[in-house]
Specification:
It is built from 3 helices and 3 strands, in the order βββααα. The protein has one domain. It has helices spanning 36-44, 52-62, 67-83, and strands at residues 7-12, 15-22, 25-34. A 3-stranded antiparallel β-sheet has the order 1-2-3. It is α+β, with helices and mostly antiparallel strands and 88 residues long. 16% of the residues are buried. Helix 2 (52-62) crosses helix 3. The chain is globular. A hairpin with a 2-residue loop joins strand 1 and strand 2. It comes from Porphyromonas catoniae F0037.
């Protein structure tokens, strides 16, 4: 998988907002709200290919979470990002 190049990630107050771009501009009507851990994962794999297992590794290294819980959380995150057309 790979995060698309046309993504802008911004922190606004205590929330991360991801704006999805199209062609040469950002589409502010397509924004995705992320928690800290999701924003961390996206930043860690920016501009490189990754797998769900890579994200599970990153999540368990940074947070006190079991691999089973991390895997379930990553599954949901990947599904959401695919629906938002953020990852290929």
């Amino acid at each position: 998988m790979r995060i698309k190049d046309q993504i802008s990630l911004r922190k606004i107050a205590d929330e991360y907002i991801m704006i999805v771009g199209s062609e040469d501009s950002l589409d502010y009507t397509q924004a995705v709200s992320l928690n800290d851990s999701a924003a961390y994962l996206i930043e860690q794999v920016r501009d490189e290919d990754f797998t769900q297992e890579d994200w599970v590794d990153l999540l368990t290294e940074r947070y006190d979470v079991s691999r089973e819980q991390a895997s379930a959380d990553i599954e949901l995150l990947v599904q959401m990002l695919k629906e938002a057309n953020v990852i290929d």
